[in-house]
Write a structure and sequence with these properties.
With 334 residues, this protein is an alpha/beta fold. It folds into two domains: 145 residues, Quinone Oxidoreductase, Chain A, domain 1 (Alpha-Beta Complex); 140 residues, Rossmann fold, CATH 3.40.50.720. The chain is built from nine helices and 16 strands. Strands 3, 5, 6, 7, 8, 15 and 16 form a seven-stranded mixed beta sheet that branches. The chain has a six-stranded parallel beta sheet with strand order 11-10-9-12-13-14, with helices on both faces. Helix 4 links the parallel strand 10 and strand 11. The two termini are 13 Å apart.
C-alpha cells in the first residue's frame, strides 16, 4: 500500500499567545510528526461522540497535549506493523486508550498506535458499520454486560435509558430491546418519540421527570437502567430503582455531580455500576465487539446513522454538544 508523507487531519492546538482557548482546523499533517507506535493504520472511518464534541469545542479540557489530532475512534486497515498480532491488510477497530486526548487521534487519514490497543474488526461488519457503533455503542454494550453480571434480566422488570436520543442511549435501547427487555426511554426531545419507539422503546418519559429535586427514595419504577446523563438525572434514577436492581453509569451530559443519598444502596440494595470505555481491558473489549456483532440489530443502527466528510467534523462537534444530534454520526475519511 502506498504511504502518504502528508495527509489531512483535524488538528486542535493552543490559541496564540495572549488569547484564551484553542484553535481547531482541517490541516495537512506530516507523517514524520506522528507519535510512536508499532502499528500504522490507514483510517477509513471514524465517528463523532459526545466526548469528541467536548474536545473539539474545548468545553471540557479533554485534550492533554498540543497539537492534537482529534477523534477517539477509528476503523481501518493495517498499513504496516512490527507487532506480532498484526500484519498489513488486517482490518481493525480502536476505541479510547487516550486517542484524541494524549495520543494523536482518529480524524486523520493515518494513525500510528500501539498494537495492544487494537481489536480485530468483526467478520460480519464493515469499517463503516463499526464506526456507526463507535465508542457510544461499544460503551452501551459494556453497560449491558455489566447489568447482566449484576443479575439483571428481562424477567426482573423494565429498564430505563436516559439521554435516549443520543448515541449511547440509542444503541442501548436497540440492544436491550433485542435482548427482550421492556425499555423506558427518557429524553429532553419528546419530538423524537417515534424514533425511540422504532428502536424498541415501549414507553417515553420526558427528561423533566428526572430533573426535579431528588428524594432519598422514590416510587420503585424500574429494575435497572443505563444512564448517560449523570447529576440529578442519575440521582433520581437511583432513587426510583427497584429493590436489588442495578444502574450502569457511563456519561456526564448533565453534569459530573451526583446529589444523592446512601438510601437506595442500604435500604434497597441496589448497585451503581461505573462504565469506563477508555482503559477497559482488551478481553472485555473483544467480548463487547463479539456481542455487538451478535446482539445489535444492524438495520436499527442504519436508521440512526448519518454520514459526513472529514471537513464537516468541526461543525458536528458543536452540534452534538448543543444537543442537536440524534443517534450516530459516521465520518468518512479514507
Amino acid at each position: 500500500m502506498q504511504t502518504m508523507a502528508a495527509f489531512k487531519a483535524i488538528v486542535i492546538d493552543k490559541a496564540q499567545a495572549g488569547q484564551a482557548g484553542q484553535t481547531v482546523r482541517l490541516a495537512d499533517f506530516d507523517d514524520k510528526d506522528l507519535m510512536d507506535g508499532d502499528v500504522t493504520v490507514a483510517v477509513q472511518y471514524s465517528t463523532v461522540n459526545y466526548k469528541d464534541g467536548l474536545a473539539l469545542t474545548g468545553k471540557v479540557p479533554v485534550v492533554r497535549r498540543f497539537p492534537m489530532i482529534a477523534g477517539i475512534d477509528l476503523a481501518g486497515t493495517v498499513e504496516a506493523s512490527s507487532h506480532p498480532a498484526w500484519k498489513a491488510g488486517d482490518k481493525v477497530v480502536l476505541n479510547g486508550w487516550g486517542l484524541g486526548e494524549t495520543h494523536l487521534g482518529a480524524y486523520a487519514q493515518k494513525a500510528r498506535v500501539r498494537g495492544d490497543w487494537l481489536v480485530r474488526l468483526p467478520q460480519g461488519m464493515t469499517a463503516r458499520d463499526a464506526m456507526a457503533i463507535g465508542t457510544a455503542g461499544y460503551t452501551a454494550m459494556l453497560a449491558v454486560m455489566a447489568l447482566e453480571r449484576a443479575g439483571l434480566d428481562p424477567a426482573r422488570g423494565p429498564v430505563i435509558v436516559t439521554g435516549a436520543a443520543g448515541g449511547v442511549g440509542s444503541v442501548a435501547i436497540a440492544l436491550l430491546a433485542k435482548l427482550g427487555y421492556e425499555v423506558i426511554a427518557s429524553t429532553g426531545r419528546p419530538q423524537e418519540a417515534a424514533y425511540l419507539k422504532g428502536l424498541g422503546a415501549k414507553e417515553i418519559i420526558e427528561r423533566k421527570e428526572l430533573t426535579s429535586a431528588v428524594r432519598p427514595l422514590g416510587k420503585e419504577r424500574w429494575a435497572g437502567g443505563v444512564d448517560a446523563v449523570g447529576s440529578t438525572t442519575l440521582a433520581n434514577v437511583l432513587s426510583m430503582t427497584r429493590y436489588g436492581g442495578a444502574v450502569a453509569a457511563c456519561g456526564l451530559a448533565g453534569g459530573m455531580d451526583l446529589p444523592t443519598t446512601v438510601a437506595p444502596f442500604i435500604l434497597r440494595g441496589i448497585s451503581l455500576l461505573g462504565i469506563d470505555s477508555v482503559m477497559c481491558p482488551i478481553a472485555q473489549r473483544q467480548e463487547a465487539w463479539r456481542r455487538l456483532e451478535a446482539d445489535l440489530d444492524r438495520a436499527k443502527i442504519a436508521t440512526m446513522t448519518t454520514e459526513i466528510a472529514l471537513a464537516d467534523v468541526i461543525d458536528a462537534g458543536q452540534r452534538i454538544v448543543a444537543g442537536e444530534v440524534r443517534g450516530r454520526i459516521v465520518v468518512k475519511i479514507g
